[in-house]
Task: structure prediction
Amino acid sequence: MKTPQPGILLPLPPLARYLTFLLDDAEHAAGCLRSLAEVADGERTVVGLGRSLLSALAVEIGGLRPFPALAGPGLELPATPAALWIWLRGDDRGEILQRARRIERILAPAFCLEETRDAFQYDGGRDLSGYEDGTENPVGDAAMDAAIVGPDCPQLAGSSFVAVQRWLHDLARFERMPADDRDLCVGRRRQDNEEIDDAPASAHVKRTAQESFTPPAFILRRSMPWAAGNRGGLMFVAFATSFDPFEAQLRRMLGIEDAIVDALFRFTRPQTGAYFWCPAMHAGRLDLSPLRL
Ligand code: HEM
Result:
C-alpha cells in the first residue's frame, strides 16, 4: 500500500530547512537516491525530485513539467530548476543542521548543495507581513484530494507535485503603507483575519480564491517564513496533484488575462521558482519504483 510522505499533510513544524541540490555526476545519481531513501522518512525529511534528475535516470514522470517563466505587467518571474529538493522539518536547529550535513554527505558523490535556507513559524502561523497564512487550506480528506495523487493513477498513487518559490519581502516598504492599505493588499484584516468582502480585485485572496477558478484550483500550501540576516520573506510551498491549479493562480496574480496585478507584488517578489515530484512511501521507505530503482 502506497502512502504519501507524511510531512506533506502534517501541520507545519516549528522549524525547517530547505536544501536544493544540483546534479554533478549523473552516474552516481541512482546509488545516492537509494541511500537517501534509507534515511528520508518522508515525515521529518520530505523529498522532491526535479526533471534534470529524472532525465539523468532516463525516466519520465507524467506531469512534472518545467517551471513556467511567466511575465505580467512590469513583472517577470524567475525559473530556477534544481535536481533535488529536501524539506527538513523539526524543532531543534542543531538537530536539523546535523541531519542536513548527513544528507549532504550521503548525496555528495552525485549532488552538490546549491542552497540552504532556514525557515520557522512566526507568531503562530503568520507570514512576516503579519498576516495569518494557510486559513483557506483544504483540511482532512479535502487536503488529501488536493495534494496527493489518487489510486486512479496507480503508477503515481500516493505521490505529489510541489511548487516552491522563495519570496523576498520588502518589509520596510510594507510597513510604510497605511494599515488599511495593507489589509486591502491581502484582502483580510490583520487584526482578526476576517476576509474583506469589498476588497479590490487586486487583493491577494480575491486573485487566488480557489473556488473562483474553473475547474476549482485547490492546492495545499505549506509555506513558512524564512530569514537570513535581516532579510526575509516566505518560502512558498504548495503541494497538488498537478501544477495546473498553482499555474492558474499564478497567472491571475500576474494579471496575465485581465492586467490586474496581485497587490502582494507591491512589497514582495519571488527570487526562485521550481517544480518537483515527491514520491510516495511504501513499507516505511520512499517508493522509488516509478524510477525503476
Ligand atoms: C509572498 C508570497 C505570498 C504571501 C505572503 C501569501 C499570503 C497569503 C495570505 C496571508 C493568505 C490569506 C490566508 C489564507 O487563506 O492562507 C493567502 C491565501 C492564499 N494564497 Fe497566498 N501568499 C503568497 C503567495 C501565493 C502564491 C504564489 C500563490 C499561488 C500561486 C498563493 C495562493 C494562495 C491561495 C490559493 C490562498 C487561499 C485563497 C482562498 O481560497 O481564499 N499565494 N496567501
Remarks:
- Residues 2-168+219-242+274-291 form one domain.
